[in-house]
Amino acid sequence: MQSLEDISVQYVKGVGPARKKLFAQLGIESVADLLYFFPRRYQDRRNLTPIAQVQVGEWQTVSGTILAKDSRRSWYTKKHVSQMTMDDGSGRISCIWFNQPYLDRYFVEGKRVVCYGKVDVYKERLQMVSPEYEILESEEDEGLNLKRIVPIYPLTRGVTQRYLRRTIKASLEKYKDRLVEQLPVELRNKHRLSNIKRSIGNIHFPESFEDQENALSRISFEEFYFFQISIILRRLSITCKKGIAHKISDAHALRFVDAFPFELTGAQKKVIREIRADMEGRSPMLRLLQGDVGSGKTLVAIFGCVMAFENGHQSCVMAPTEILARQHYENIKAMIEDGTFKDMKVALFISGIKKAEKDKLYEQIKNGEIDLVVGTHALINDEVAFKSLSFAVIDEQHKFGVRQRALLAEKGKNPDVLIMTATPIPRTLCITLYGDLDISIIDEMPPGRGKVETRLYNHQQADEVYGLIRKKAAEGQQVYVIYPIIEESEKLDLKAAKEMYKYFQTTEFKKLSIGLVHGQMKQKESHEIMGRFKDKEIDILVATTVVEVGVDVPNANVMVIENAERFGLAQLHQLRGRIGRGETDGLCLLVAEAETSESNDRLKAILSTTNGFEIAQHDLEIRGPGRFFGRHQHGLNELKVANPLTQLDILELARKEAITLTENDPKLAKEPNRYINDIIKKRYPTYLKDVKAG
Ligand code: ADP
Ligand code: MG
Questions:
Q1: 291 CB under 6 A from ligand 1?
Q2: Which of 372, 461, 514, 529 has its CA at a distance of 20 to 30 angstroms from the CA of residue 632?
Q3: Which atom of ligand 1 is nearest to 295's Cα?
Q4: 612 CB near ligand 1 (under 6 Å)
């Protein structure tokens, strides 16, 4: 029998070839897509409130017969106003809409209508402004759209709620029995999950909210379950391989620790122990290292590099941008040169270097002259070949896909891999996304760091902000003034930054020395200015976000962030992480005007804490997992319905079951489990590709 994925939506009653295109806009191609097109929310129309009893100020659903309609142009706002009055026998209510002249024709006197909106009183009459509206054409229509819990779907132009409901209902009637159950019956019985037919039916047209919740839980469970199996399989495919068992004596390990002029934090020591144990084992390490900006991850990573070196192998560090790669390179070189492992040869490999130099590097990496390569994704370039890569570090994991991770690992013979991220990820999401990784956390900052105080100002308070800058400069401190640059308005933004720079120079801070750096400058030029800032020749540095990564200027402890509402939360956190790095306390002044509730939430969050984990949690709540990780992130895209943030309990149940299954049958070769392989292949094709590559 043909599977529902292979039947075009056009064969559903009421669709046909013309409307097929409309469905395509909603991402619906097949009958399966249509059945899995879930409501955004529901409206309870089981017991509608009679109009005479509606609560003013509340959001309510009312239904009645259209009594009159009217349209006019508002003399005040010049807007077109459409008005419709309905009557339900108990009372009347008027509904108005602005600038939607087609509504004048849409409403017809005598027809049944449903509206959902906030009830007001205007000139002593009940009114709703811009409510949601639906006309009911027939008795059948009423059965589907009234006196029940009604699904509300995401729409596109030309598709109405009513039409979608009717079409989905028709597809359910015709095709529901052909939905194939994929969850094993024992699992369904054990966790009381209803069968797929019932669940899909109840997602669209539930009789109670309890039925709807059960349906959602069941469908989410299924998604989590297969997704977790795929993650575990991928992990098994890597850890079952034979890698290199590194050796390091306690004395050598101690020598590494003693090489630094400061005491390592407890968290750093703990993570070094974890890495050491992994690297001594034969199966390849696959570990995620989380730690806030400045928590000292780099040092921990270098320990792994030293271990590789001591065993006669090579290591590499891959960063997401050239600036970061360069900075890592410089830091690492400095740390190694100061330490007891001076003989280690470190090189920088980025795409910007000259051909001759590059060719030489290829050669040196290949013949093992270079022990540690720091670079960008240019490292996964085909031509880079190592003599013997046994340890690879990937910085800022969320900017690289799973695929790149696998490609880098291919450069060695099952090397140990450490992934570092400064975006701490709440534990719940960690399981979902990185369930295939072991996790290390640096949850402690090196001692002696200053505290950073954050204050919020509006644009009218510029004088106050400038006054503070002047005061701090008089105390000998240096100041960053940061301007956002957003791609869409790049030119305007840059102009603003340049103008402020001029204004500071000529008017506001005439007596101080001002510098400007931005992303469109030549590298040499911005390097020079940063150098002068470091050397305290510049008091106030006006900058676009180039300081976000990279610079470390201990004497700069004041930061002004202009138009802070335009920055993302993670970005604000990173920026602020630049100050208060030395012993002096930092002061961060946000100048902002929150325009949306989202930007308001962001500002509130950044004011409330400096803890990276808390900020990440806020960010996640504000943006939701999809946007938090960006669309490149594997995993979250694969989850269509299930939400690890709100369904943690289901996720954990599903994960437990996935672990049990794969422990008993790691190859999914036993008869009742074989079909799961096919499901995984079909649902997570990219994952499988990675498994082959890795
Ligand atoms: P991260 O990579 O986590 O942002 P880094 O590894 O770049 O942090 O460390 C930030 C700074 O802190 C570096 O200058 C480093 O030398 C210093 N540092 C690292 N560990 C310690 C420590 N235990 N005590 C004092 N300073 C440290
Ligand atoms: Mg770092």
A1: yes
A2: 372
A3: 3
A4: no
Assign domain 47-147 to its CATH architecture.
Beta Barrel (2.40)
CA 90 distance to own-chain centroid: 50
Distance 546 CA to ligand 1 centre (A): 20
pTM for the model: 0.72
Q: How far is CA 480 from the centre of its chain?
A: 28
The answer as to CATH 3.40.50.300 being correct for domain 182-449+650-694 is yes
Q: Quote the tokens at residue 347.
A: 């090189």
Q: Which of 140, 194, 176, 138 is nearest to 34 (CA)?
A: 176
Q: What is the pLDDT of residues 594-624, one digit of tens each?
A: 878 888 999 999 999 988 888 988 888 888 7
List the chain domain ranges: 47-147, 182-449+650-694, 452-609
Distance CA(520)–CA(320), nearest Å, equals 19
Q: What's the token pair of residue 215?
A: 């349906």
**Is the beta carbon of 293 within 6 A of some atom in ligand 1?**
yes
Q: List, for residues 532-582, the tens digit of each pLDDT value.
A: 998 999 999 999 875 555 567 889 999 999 999 988 898 899 889 889 877
Which amino acid would we find at residue 530? M
Counting ligand 1 atoms within 8 A of each CB, the residue from 258, 262, 335 with the most, and so the one to mutate, is 262
Q: In which band, very low, low, confident or very high, does the pLDDT at 633 lie, cut at 50, 70 and 90?
A: low
Residue 660 has pLDDT above 50, yes or no: yes
Residue 692 has pLDDT above 50, yes or no: no
Q: Do domains 47-147 and 182-449+650-694 have the same CATH topology?
A: no
Report the nearest atom of ligand 1 relative to the CA of 442. Answer: 3
**Quick one: 452-609 is in which CATH superfamily?**
P-loop containing nucleotide triphosphate hydrolases (3.40.50.300)
